[in-house]
């Protein structure tokens, strides 16, 4: 599971993430919701050891990401804006990742097939469409068959069929007893995918609970979201 406690990040005088605390449990899809620039990506980067918190902790199964021996086997991640070397073939990109965590080559073939890229495995990534690149990112997250998935805007660039596939896959993944954290600003999609929700605005958690608890008294998750965030656009970080 994921445990984030008092997580804070300052950039000089600017406070990007302010005392963020929440947990993500096995068997549940947790939506991490907020306007663009609200602090979602910064929080995920600290969880995955890419940024150092000013204070607080972000633990995966009780450990910091950097203390996991083979992290890809514990947590698979897709971060918005992160991607492979454009000149590298997809199969080579995943093989390199697999070797770094002692994952078999067979698993590379499995995940490429799972995300629908088996026929494009030997293409250079620079020749991929946005949707194909996103599928490759999901394949990389699944490479270690991890207990936990952390996905930042996973349906970005996907067509309706791809979006439906991601939705169904994430629910099945959580139903198998694993934990899924999905960052998104797409309320309609999260309403069909998430069991729980964490809402962040201006770097602070404004709501945390089951989807039913979050939407109680509102017409939809979208209306609850705007009521909780005040419709604010956030500050880009």
From TrEMBL:
Annotated ABC transporter domain residues: 2-227
An MF annotation (GO) of this entry: ATP binding
Species for this entry: Dactylosporangium fulvum
SMART domains (alphabetical): AAA
Source species, domain of life: Bacteria
Record protein name field: ATP-binding cassette domain-containing protein
Pfam families in the cross-refs: ABC_tran
Family: Belongs to the ABC transporter superfamily.
Residues forming coiled coils: none
Xref: SUPFAM superfamilies: P-loop containing nucleoside triphosphate hydrolases
């Amino acid at each position: 599971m994921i445990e984030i406690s008092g997580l804070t990040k300052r950039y000089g005088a600017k406070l990007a993430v302010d005392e963020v605390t929440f947990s993500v449990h096995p068997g549940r899809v947790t939506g991490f919701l907020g306007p663009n620039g609200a602090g979602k990506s910064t929080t995920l980067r600290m969880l995955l050891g890419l940024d150092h918190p000013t204070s607080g902790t972000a633990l995966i199964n009780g450990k910091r990401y950097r203390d996991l021996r083979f992290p890809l086997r514990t947590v698979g991640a897709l971060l918005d804006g992160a991607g492979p070397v454009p000149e590298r073939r997809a199969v080579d990109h995943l093989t390199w990742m697999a070797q770094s965590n002692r994952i078999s080559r067979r698993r590379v073939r499995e995940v490429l097939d799972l995300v629908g890229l088996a026929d494009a495995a030997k293409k250079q990534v620079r020749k991929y469409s946005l949707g194909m690149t996103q599928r490759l990112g999901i394949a990389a997250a699944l490479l270690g068959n991890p207990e936990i998935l952390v996905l930042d805007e996973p349906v970005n660039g996907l067509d309706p069929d791809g979006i439906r596939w991601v939705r169904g896959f994430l629910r099945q993944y959580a139903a198998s007893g694993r934990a899924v954290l999905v960052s998104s600003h797409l309320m309609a999609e999260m309403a069909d995918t998430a069991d729980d929700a964490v809402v962040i605005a201006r770097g602070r958690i404004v709501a945390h609970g089951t989807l039913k608890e979050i939407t109680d008294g509102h017409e939809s998750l979208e209306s609850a979201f705007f009521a909780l965030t005040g419709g604010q656009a956030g500050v880009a970080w």
